[in-house]
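Ticket #4471: structure export looks truncated?
Reporter: QA, pipeline team
Priority: medium

Steps to reproduce: submit the single chain below to the structure queue and open the exported record.
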Amino acid sequence: MRIRIIGLPLLLLSGLSQAQTQETTAATQEAAFNFSRCFSHVPLKVVSPSAPSSGMSSGQGNNAPITVTAETLDATRDGKVVYSGDVQVEQAQRKFSADYLELEQLSKDVLAEGNIYYTDGAITVDSQQRLTGNLTSKDTQLDEANYQFHGEPGRGHAKQVRLSDNTSQVDLKGASYTTCPPDGEAWQLKASSVQVEQDEVFGEAWNAVLWLGDVPVFYFPYIKFPVKDERQSGLLYPSFEFGGDNGTDISLPYYWNIAPNYDATFTPRYMKKRGTMAQLEFRYLPTAGQSGTLYGEYLSSDDELNETRWRDDHRWLFNWRHNARFDDAGHWRASADYTKVADWDKEYFDDFSPPVGQIVDDQLMQSFRGGYYDKHWQLTTEIRDYQILKTNLNTMPFQLAPSLALTSYRGFGDVDLGLNSEVTQFKNDADQVYEATRVHIEPKLVYSVINQPGAQLTADVGAYYTHYEQDIPDTLSSYYGDQNTNGLGFTTDGLDSSVDRLLPRFRLNGTLVFDRETQWFEQDFTQTIEPQLQYLYVPFKDQDNIGLYDTTDMRQDYYSLFSDRRYAGLDRINDANQITAGFTSRIYDAESVERLRLALAQTYNFISPRVQLFPKHNDEISDPKRSFLTFEGDLNIDNNWFVHTEAQQDTRNKRLAAANITLEYNNQGKLAQLGFRHLNQTYFTDADLDDDLNQLGGTFSWPLDPQWRLIGGYYRDIELNRNIDTLIGLRYDSCCWAVSLVWEQSQKEYKQTNPGEVEQETLIGLRFELKGLSSLATGDGSFSPGTNLLPYYRPFNLNN
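Actual output as written to the record:
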């Protein structure tokens, strides 16, 4: 039968489910079943297809038909309706059951007793006591209730649950909360009173005590906690760090919800060895398509610098990030990424590790970009500068002030047309440095002569036109000049104030693919042989009258040999009359998994290249008829063992220029990697090597059992006979808490107080986590394979 009035327990108990943070069903289901041994008791979160959230405020949910079944139904003369024996009430995904249920039709009082059970897909509540309520006042009380959230391990107990004011308020007396599985409560948070307003973002708790096992360890007279995925002003959870370079390090953030599209976070950060820093983050969404963040840090003085000349100087950082889209189609866009610290403060990022800023080779980038982006062409502009976080530099990098670029690429059947062009002004803040305005236009036409399965042949015709207007000082600094052997070799007489450079280019590239079916070790495989041949012609033009602004050598590997460039940047266009020959061989198994890839290539020059990066090198040309013989290989042995290797061989002098090899085992959480790297100093002068580089090292992450994991890393410079980085760590991981200890010894360079000095630094990190509640860490506290200087990465290039 169907009856409306029995919907009361469903309506009242559903209020509990709205006290939890709303999450997507897919995310919570995935999180709940990462470890079945921990979450086997956690039911799946179920969301009604018609409901926008897991709560029971949906009108469609409340209006759904209600089905009631019971073993017996009695009605008394005084207006009481009694259901007894396996009472079951269902409405959509809501279910309520009890041994006994009665309704006073006149007073609208409801009473349920015995084996009370309620679920709505988001929360399950059960009690062996009684439930009382009233249909008119919408008040309900449930005694000795247990609750379990769906899709997440959070659960607990309350001596009394009261829902009032049409379920908009939930009061719990003698409540507890934990993420630990039943009968394994390693920690619990208990409170004498908890109140949740379902229209509010935060709930409140009084007299809360954190228990570890049977021991109370922390008391909170009053705390607020989030119950919805919405924003509200207030204090956020603090962070603690002990034992690092800054000593005791405590941050207490305060969040200010200014408006729906503006907010700010102010964080006082106390560092025992340095002082108190102020941190401020302001986020804004002024209009649709525009967003940004302003972030700053300020320390009035640093106690660690009391014995230096910077003892009274302020330490600060400013960062601005902005992204803008000015039309619905996203054609007009702009972005900004600007970070700056005090000019003298070279060690700021090493000392404070701010969460913003892009640093590459001790250069802090400051960039403003904008332009029009179309499917076939883009017009962009950029202003870029760098702040150098290194002392004793002979020069500064050039600024783009500004750069305007037009690129286009369009296909017309077998013919593709392309254009790369730019106008760039280069400025430099250093003394006695040339500057320039550069105009570059590079049209090209690519014709697909053959485009068939197993055979491709393309002809590429283009030209490079570049014009320079250079501002040359009367005297060049020793870094750029030829005053000493360490200079780049430029002279004021050798550089021209106005330069035009026009170079044609022709490239013909062909590839064939042969494959055959074969068997090895009684298994089916497919093997390919893919020869590739390229001819490239670019005539020689003396370019020593052009300064270097954004150009450097390009790293050589298999793929770069088939490029038309030997230099990264436009200040040098290499001459070429050469053939590059290479082949790739692949082996696929019966499931089309690539098991092996071998690639070998070399370039033969009909005429030795004469363009050099620096003028001082032009008298050192050694008639290189051939490039390095370049080899790359990847091997997937059994989906667990992998090998990657690269090598560049100087075939004329019969010397190994560079090589590396990596062996890795990766299987179901077990990881071990061993690597070796070699560089010959003769061929890598820009690496500033005193001797050949030979480095050996490895890292691992290995479970000792389901709860204990050991990680480690060790890297050593064989030539210098010293350790580069060493790490060892141990972690215990249970269902609801974890603790990890990491010891690391690495090299640290003191850029400011002792420039050039490198010392071994020892770091100890300890992290204690209460899953679903908080964590406390000393030092770095992170736990992952690799080391701080050499993090783990996978170099393998197989298509799996």
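Status: closed, not a bug. The export was complete when the record was re-opened. Leaving a note from the reviewer for reference: The chain is about 5% helix and 55% strand.
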